[in-house]
Amino acid sequence: MKASEIRAMKPEQLDAKLVELKKELFNLRFQQTINQLDNPSRISAVRKDIARIKTVQRDLELHGAEG
């Protein structure tokens, strides 16, 4: 997911996407623990997406909608 796509989302959508990604990360870590993970690089990608969403949320918190 690109940063421009994340910035285009509304705050409610960001919250929902963040919850979804956290659930996915939990499931990926669980799969990794029981050695059934097919694509280990997906964990890294999900973590980066979570960080991007949190960054945009913080930017909106500090600067509001005009930023």
Describe this structure in words.
The protein has helices at residues 3-7, 11-33, 41-63. With 67 residues, it is mainly α.
Output the helix-strand order: HHH
The poorly predicted ranges are: none
Count of DSSP-assigned helices: 3
**Range of helix content:** over 70%
Bulk shape:
elongated
User: How much of the sequence is in beta strands?
Assistant: under 5%
What is the CATH topology descriptor? Helix Hairpins
Cα distance, first to last residue? 21 Å
Spatial extent as radius of gyration: 14 Å
Secondary structure category: mainly alpha
Instruction: Give the averaged pLDDT, no decimals.
Output: 93
Number of domains: 1
The strand count comes to: 0
CATH second-level architecture: Orthogonal Bundle
What is the CATH top level name?
Mainly Alpha
Major sheet attributes: none
What's the short version?
With 67 residues, this protein is an all-alpha fold. It has three helices and no strands.
How do the strands and helices of this protein lay out in sequence?
Layout: H1 3-7, H2 11-33, H3 41-63
Helix pairs in contact: 2-3
